[in-house]
């Protein structure tokens, strides 16, 4: 019942029930405490969660791995790293081994807080303790954190290490690395990175991991920003041939790029392709009108404007 109240957001009622149980000379179980601690953390009442954790110990209820995972996750969300370290040390002193959920939670939070060095140290500790990292949470978080700091080589090295350990990357992990390569290509003018990103997309398929709309969109936008429109158009065709429907923003970005280099006919063909898949939004229409007027296609621009009015 306590668990049910917490899951429905009624933590205050769960606490009241806990007190009533104690008044009835019954001892609440560790499961009850864990449910409330987790509920308080999710409700961002971290101070109350910590107080209940201490109260639980004082009343002779010994915390378990779930208790620590919940309180640590709550502390991570607030960036309370000293407290996190304190609870981890306490956990070890009680001879409770942090499981992959606890460690993955900390690594993910550290990466989001730009503390990738500490995250990497903890990551290696996982292997030392024989804890197998979770692909989506642990590896992806760490690779994403390294990429956000511009540490492309480190991210690529970790990716290769992941495969070397027999752990297959998923579409999310691949997309993170493809995105990083694309950003480096157009922001640092390392255009060769676009070729590497494309090779990674092909490697992804060879490994039996099918790219999704996000994977293709990242690469298409990368080629667009690198001013390689032919490559972007080819990827769009490949994407559509696989039955994937591009986002409106993907079409719009390409149409804008084509108009800028005065490839009006190609932009119009792309516009027809878009109409078959989804309806253009206001931003798409603005791009189309600007492009048509800039390229002197006034009659076509007026027809489009009239269509918008309908």
Mind explaining what this structure looks like?
GO terms for molecular function: mRNA binding. With 310 residues, the protein is mainly alpha-helical. It is 75% helix and 0% strand. It contains 18 helices and no strands. The longest helix has 17 residues. The model has no long low-confidence stretch (mean pLDDT 82).
Do you know the CATH architecture of the domain at 1-96? Alpha Horseshoe
Q: On the 0-100 scale, what is the average pLDDT?
A: 82
From the N-terminal CA to the C-terminal CA, the straight-line distance is 56 Å
| CATH class annotation of the domain at 1-96 | Mainly Alpha
Q: What gyration radius follows from the Cα positions, in whole Å?
A: 26 Å
Count of beta strands:
0
CATH superfamily of the domain at 1-96: Tetratricopeptide repeat domain
Please report the number of helical segments.
18
The level of helicity is over 70%
Structural class: mainly alpha
Assembly state here? single chain
- Along the chain, the helix and strand elements come as HHHHHHHHHHHHHHHHHH
β-strand percent reads under 5%
Profile the largest sheet. Answer: none
